[in-house]
Design goal:
The chain has twelve helices and 71 strands. The protein is mostly beta strands. It folds into six domains: 98 residues, Alpha-Beta Plaits (2-Layer Sandwich), CATH 3.30.70; 306 residues, Rossmann fold; 118 residues, Immunoglobulin-like (Sandwich); 75 residues, Thrombin, subunit H, CATH 2.40.10; 170 residues, Beta Barrel (Lipocalin); 90 residues, Sandwich (Immunoglobulin-like). β39 and β40 form a beta hairpin. The longest helix has 18 residues. It is elongated. The protein starts with a helix and ends with a strand. Keywords: Hydrolase, Membrane, Protease, Serine protease, Signal, Transmembrane, Transmembrane helix. This is Peptidase S8 and S53 subtilisin kexin sedolisin.
């Protein structure tokens, strides 16, 4: 550790004189301003104090006076060991005969006072040529003088080195956190370092003689705090009555122990220390300061050593200890928090016998006298100095931070609760170890509430200091070097979770259990697990109802004690997971041994009604040690009840265009086609494998959805792709190219394929930004009458269908001049067309045909819904209340033989209008990101909705999720879904994609009707046409569709104290019943606000964030569900923030 830091520092060739800042290490919304000649200015954004955390600048060692904050009228002067001591006190400005050169400098630059730098140093404090009693502080009358005097003082033969006096600054804009949780449970870091596992081993050893002493060199400690007063060290040399407490009898005004400090019974306040005023013995700041900055020392002390087992508050990490406190902040500095004489505090603690000294401060700049002081403290006094690495997110190898980077100091970086480097924490090869430093709950001034949550390397450092003290409790005979080595070697590896910082976070995360446990206990853990299940449907996935056998491989780690009578017990909190065999007997396990559980020992059967998605199985590994004491370890295994089609998901680079389903041959095998983000066409077989010779490089930017159709009439479908620059290509599934036509026109909207001329082979229809409508045969030739000149550019796609019911298909296309066109197959505009619309069309038009005839539906950019008759007249015009977020679709919502023009708005409401002006509304309750799909199973309508967060929900005819959905995928979904029977088993698969994956979900319901809206714009030909006749419509009782008049409103949302809930409906009476319930995101009931309450046209409810037991719930997302008799269900998301 020492050599590593020394080599890194020497590689920078740092100069040994100058000035540097030191930072106490907590984070905040902070930036440095280097525009001043001298001093690093700390800018804190106080406007968001709940986001700003703790930062302390301790200016204690320095290298450049022009880039750091220093005392501008002071210098530190270290004399050589052989030099005579200087007289201290006020300087008399006249010539001195014994030191004429020094006297001349003092006169020339008007030095007013000289005092010793370390008041706690005596004649024994000499290390490698440095006599610490001969390091002095010079005060100058003018702040400009020190810069001029440095060179002349350094040139004196009796002077070893000269530097500016660095400053210490603290800023703590931190808001306290309140909770009703037990305080010990709020100390998550105790679990992370496994301290609580170590405490139960304390009866395995005898308490060491004497107390382990922890020095806290900081802003002072609130000794009135009930967690601090009992653990503060009482100096026995000043405890006159020997009662172990600070009493009036001890305060006799004498330096009883002869250490130079009068009545230092309970530490020392160095903030005013000088030769004329040596400070006092009160280490408590009288107040907590602005943003509690003066509570920093109390917070740090609580982490390492708050009183344990006293029935209140928290517990420190250490055991069998006392805390030596020194105070270095001034009582009147309520907002800046400067520290003074911090290195004097280190020496003071060491000379009182401190085993560990914590320094949650530091700064840039190397000063050799400081290094010699640390060396002496470690070698002569046996104290281990632990220091924070800093909060600049810097690499300390290139931007050294002191005292943490000095040789012999244990340097600590900060981690978050997930064991990843905290965003603010410094790092580098100089780091020795890391510890939790985010969300650390500890003590502050008692009158300010006593406790607060802070973050910073300031908090990580005492976690390590307390851990070293705890290890010393078990191994008091170890030397300081051996203690540090034991802690470093026992750390948990971090590189796998911190790849960008591999090797730069020290030996790992501190783990006191690993340091202590091997001497007393076994360490049995799960090394590996395997799964076998009855794959009843042959999809290669675990489905509800299939029996699962789990085997675990255990290891008793090398170097730990043996374990006896080991067994594994499985359990699950999920009531739909049935554990038919729950116990596996392992037997005895010597250290270093491995053992599998037997096949069939642990068997789990998910209930057939269990929803798809992740499930969790928990295991307890039980046994005893050599003394017969019980051992217990926990292990969790997450399984996925999956509808994944076999061989899926697959990883590919995707663009956001839809995935197409291709019928590749007469044997009905199905393939998937898509364009990746490198503009390559890819074709996958039903096993998810790329089919040769694909991928095929298309060479240009492609974001227009591809079209799939049997273009050459051979019974196999081809794939047509169109670049945004108008290059059209048609490929067969064997990769051969049938058409390569360059229109040389920009295309924005979708294109389509359909048989317009009745020859049995579809043509390709394209509208362009050159104001043209093309209809191309497979030969690349235009049909007669085409291309047609449009009235304006066409940024949206085309729709193809028999609009006027003459048995021939027409083309619908919108233009940018607010017109909608209808052309026949010869390129002629039909009578009554074009139609002028009240705004530009937002999406591709749709053509619907039902028992009442055909209509065309469009949505304008001004959010108007328009349904038009074949003659161009308006059937319906509606101003929509919310913005429509994606392409519309067609479906028969209520199975009455009339198609509804449907869409999803920005409030995630599914809204449909039919040709008779009936409006239907269903609130999906999720953030849908692609147009829903429609199919039929067991003659029942199914709606497929894809949530951006990865949930795929299949709704039934009552618009409630089917028993097998929602299916939660472990990644976000950002593409259009498609439906297809990939494996030919008679049921459909939903194909979705996101985050570079393609997934195919095998729906467990057989197809019962060929009608479906199965892809983007209805089908793979992208015709945007849907037809339904009366024979295919079956009346249903539609309880899932919510009447337009019913509304559920909440305010405010997010909320803190309470939320107001209003449910209203113009047609509601007392005959209907309302139930209003709150669920968490896992579907567990939290609170019932109303249960079958008589309805009214206007009802108000309130929720205050409490559950059924009256306890406040945690911050997070909750679901508000309103059920209205005969009218369905509304779900809204609530966000509760404490």
């Amino acid at each position: 550790m020492q050599l590593k830091k020394k080599l890194l520092r020497e590689s920078e060739n740092l100069h040994k004189s100058g000035a540097a800042s030191s930072m106490v290490c907590q984070t905040g919304n902070i930036s440095r301003d280097y525009r001043r000649d001298i001093g690093a200015v700390v800018n804190v954004d106080f406007s968001q104090s709940f986001k700003v955390f703790f930062l302390i600048f301790v200016f204690a060692v320095i290298t450049s006076a022009f880039s750091q904050e220093v005392f501008q009228n002071q210098l530190l002067v270290a004399l050589k060991r052989t030099a005579q001591p200087l007289p201290t006190g006020k300087v008399r400005l006249q010539a001195s005969l014994d030191r004429p050169q020094l006297s001349r400098i003092l006169q020339k630059y008007r030095v007013t006072r000289i005092e010793r730098w370390l008041k706690s140093a005596d004649q024994n404090d000499v290390y490698e040529g440095i006599d610490f009693t001969k390091v002095y502080r010079f005060y100058f009358e003018k702040s400009s003088s020190p810069k001029l005097a440095i060179k002349e003082l350094q040139a004196l033969p009796e002077v070893e080195q000269v530097s500016f006096e660095p400053m210490v600054k603290i800023a703590v804009p931190i808001a306290p956190v309140t909770t009703s949780d037990p305080y010990l449970e709020r100390q998550y870091y105790l679990e992370k370092i496994m301290a609580r596992y170590v405490w139960r081993l304390m009866d395995q050893v005898e308490q060491p003689e004497g107390e382990i002493l922890i020095g806290i060199v900081d802003t002072g400690i609130d000794y009135l705090h009930p967690e601090m007063e009992p653990v503060l060290y009482i100096n026995p040399g000043e405890d006159i009555d020997g009662d172990g407490r600070m009493t009036e009898a001890d305060l006799n005004g004498l330096d009883d122990d002869g250490n130079g400090f009068v009545d230092d019974v309970r530490g020392w306040d160095f903030s005013y220390a000088s030769d004329s005023s040596s400070g006092d013995n009160d280490i408590r700041p009288p107040n907590s300061g602005g943003y509690d900055i003066l509570s920093h020392g109390t917070h740090v002390a609580g982490i390492a050593g708050a009183m344990a087992d006293n029935g209140v508050g928290i517990s420190g990490i250490a055991r069998g200890y006392k805390i030596i406190g020194t105070k270095h902040s001034r009582d009147d500095d309520l907002s800046h928090g400067y520290l003074y004489n911090a290195y004097d505090g280190i020496l003071y603690c060491a000379k009182l016998g401190a085993d560990v000294i914590n320094c949650s401060w530091g700064g840039q700049g190397y000063y050799e006298v400081a290094q010699k002081l640390i060396d002496m403290v470690r070698q002569d006094y046996g104290a281990i100095v632990v220091a924070a690495a800093g909060n600049d997110n810097n690499n300390n190898d290139n931007n050294h931070f002191y005292p943490s980077d000095l040789d012999g100091v244990v340097t600590v970086a900060a981690l978050g609760p997930d064991d990843r480097k905290a965003s603010f924490s410094n790092y580098g090869h100089v780091i020795d170890i890391s510890a939790p430093g985010v969300g650390i709950f500890s003590t502050i001034h008692y009158y300010k509430g006593g406790y607060a949550t802070w973050q910073g390397t300031s908090m990580a450092s005492p976690v390590v200091a307390g851990s070293i003290a705890l290890v010393k409790y078990f191994f008091p005979q170890l030397s300081p070097d051996q203690l540090v080595e034991k802690v470093l070697q026992a750390a948990d590896p971090l590189d796998a979770l911190n790849q960008p910082y591999a090797g730069l976070l020290g030996s790992g995360k501190v783990n006191v259990y690993n340091a202590i446990g091997p001497h007393f206990l076994p360490n049995v853990a799960v090394l590996q697990d395997t799964l076998q299940w009855d794959d009843l449907n042959g999809n290669g996935q675990i489905d509800p109802g299939e029996s699962i056998n789990i085997r675990l491989k255990l290891v008793n780690k090398e170097g730990w004690r043996p374990a006896f009578d080991v067994r594994i017990v499985a359990f699950a909190e999920d009531s739909l997971l049935h554990i038919t065999d729950s116990v596996a007997v392992i037997g005895d396990m010597p250290q270093g041994s491995e053992q599998w559980s037997a096949p069939g020992d642990i068997t789990i059967v998910p209930d057939a009604a269990h929803p798809y998605g992740p499930v969790k199985i928990s295991f307890i590994i039980e046994g005893v040690n050599e003394a017969g004491e019980p051992l217990r370890e926990f292990y969790e295994k997450q399984l996925l009840l999956s509808m994944y089609q076999e061989h899926f998901p697959r990883s590919f680079k995707m663009n956001n265009a839809p995935i197409s389903v291709v019928k590749a041959s007469a044997d009905s095998t199905v393939k998937l086609a898509f364009i990746n983000d490198e503009n390559q066409l890819i074709l996958l077989n039903d096993a998810g494998q790329v089919v040769a010779p694909f991928p095929i490089d298309l060479g240009e930017y492609h974001r227009v959805p591809q079209v799939v159709a049997d273009l050459d009439g051979d019974g196999q479908q081809e794939i047509a792709v169109l670049s945004n620059y108008g290059k059209l290509k048609v490929f067969k599934t064997d990769g051969s190219l049938l058409l390569d036509r360059d229109l040389n026109e920009v295309v924005y909207g979708s294109f389509a394929a359909d048989d317009l001329d009745g020859d049995g082979q579809p043509e390709i229809i394209i509208a362009t930004m050159r104001k043209k409508l093309h209809v191309l045969a497979l030969s690349g030739e235009e049909l007669p009458g085409f291309p047609v000149a449009l009235s304006s550019i066409a940024p949206e796609g085309v729709a193809i269908g028999d609009v006027n019911e003459d048995g021939r298909k027409e083309i619908v296309v919108s233009a940018f001049d607010n017109t909608l066109h209808l052309f026949d197959r010869n390129g002629a505009e039909l009578a009554g067309w074009p139609v002028e619309l009240p705004g530009n069309v937002k999406f591709t038009p749709l053509i619907a045909k039902d028992r009442n005839g055909a209509f065309i539906g469009v949505i304008t950019k001004s959010n108007q819904l328009l349904l038009l008759k074949p003659d161009g007249s308006f059937k319906l015009s509606v101003n929509l209340r919310a913005d429509v977020k994606m392409d519309p679709f067609l479906m028969d919502l209520n199975r009455d033989g009339l198609l509804e023009f449907c869409f999803v708005d920005e409030e995630n409401q599914l809204i449909g209008y039919d040709s008779q002006n009936k409006r239907y509304l269903f609130r999906l309750g999720a953030e849908i990101n692609s147009p829903p799909l429609v199919f039929y199973a067991a003659d029942q309508l199914r709606l497929v909705a894809v949530d951006i967060k990865g949930a795929v929900t299949i709704f039934d005819e009552a618009f409630k999720p089917t028993f097998y959905s929602p299916v939660q995928l472990p990644y976000t979904l950002n593409n259009f879904a498609s439906l297809a029977d990939l494996d030919g088993d008679g049921d459909r698969e939903v194909v979705v994609s996101g985050e570079g994956r393609i997934a195919a979900l095998d729906l467990p319901e057989a197809n019962s009707n060929t009608l479906s809206w199965s892809a983007f714009l209805g089908n793979e030909q992208r015709t945007a046409f849907f037809e339904i006749d009366s024979a295919s419509a079956t009346a249903i009782v539609n309880k899932g569709i919510v009447p337009e008049e019913l509304a559920l409103k909440v305010f405010p949302n997010p909320f803190n104290a309470s939320v107001k809930i209003n449910i209203a409906g113009s047609g509601l009476t007392r005959r209907e019943k309302i139930s209003l319930k709150i669920f968490d995101i896992r579907g567990r009931l939290v609170k019932t606000l109303a249960d079958n309450r008589p309805a009214a046209d206007h009802l108000n409810f309130f929720w205050n964030g409490r559950n059924e037991k009256g306890q406040y719930v945690s911050s997070g997302v909750y679901l508000l569900q309103a059920d209205v008799t005969d009218h369905g269900q509304i779900i809204k998301r609530l966000i509760y923030i404490k």
